[in-house]
Amino acid sequence: ECYVQNTAREYAKIYAAEAEPLEGFGEVPEIIPIFLVHRPANNIPYATVEEELVGEFVKYSVKDGKEINFLRRDSEAGQKCCTFQHWVYERTNGSLLVTDLQGVGMKLTDVGIATLTKGYKGFKGNCSVSFIEQFKVLHQCNKYCEMLGLKSLQSTHQKQRKPMSTKSKTLPNSATVKKTVPSAQESKRTETSLLR
After folding, report:
1. Which of 1, 150, 176, 193 has its CA 20 to 30 A from that of 18?
2. Residue 37 to residue 1: CA distance in whole angstroms
């Protein structure tokens, strides 16, 4: 938990350094640090400690990407969280996605990270790779994505799908296809080999 959240926090710091200087971008989401505490005299010897967030707790992104969340889409914090996800995704060449962004205002906690199956630079996330696939399909760029110069994921996704659909429609020319009928002996050999 500490490793994931503090890794996401480091990405958020780099994101902030790039976004804050942009005219009109404004405040940037911050992932608060989380600390592991060892309490040897306690029945539960390890605990995590983090800053208390006071106010309305909002989920700006959901782990599996299926929930429709108007606060995510319509609020400034929500849009900037979605832009942060897009920025991380692009920065890591689609290998890593910070997800499950939630918190109070611009202060976020309890985040998750999805990585490709092999991980990213030795790091493996705590969320399924399917979250990355869903993000690619569901993400809608906003003005903050444009301010950072991020590439639209929809056009990339559509370009990748187009050649596949064209190939499936391509049929061989019927004039070049030879029709051959196997002899009775060849049919028996094929059936025998299939039964083995």
Report:
1. 1
2. 12
Backbone angles phi, psi at 47, to 5 degrees: -145, 160
**Domain hosting residue 106, numbered range:** 1-148
Query: Structure tokens of 185?
Result: 């002996």
- Asked whether residue 25 is assigned to any structural domain, the reply reads yes
How many structural domains are present in the chain? 1
Q: Per 3-state DSSP, what percentage of the chain is helix, strand, and coil (rounded to 5)?
A: 40, 15, 40
Residues pairing with 158 in the sheet: none
Q: Is residue 85 part of a domain?
A: yes
Distance CA 9, CA 28 (A): 12
pLDDT tens-digit map of 91-130: 999 999 999 899 999 999 999 999 998 888 888 888 888 8
Residues of the chain with pLDDT under 50: 65, 68, 157-196
Q: Judge whether 172 lies within some domain.
A: no
Cβ neighbours for 57, distance < 8 A, ≥ 6 positions apart = 102, 103, 104
Distance of CA 177 to the CA centre of its chain: 45
Residue 57 lies in a domain: yes
Quote the pLDDT of residue 63.
Answer: 52
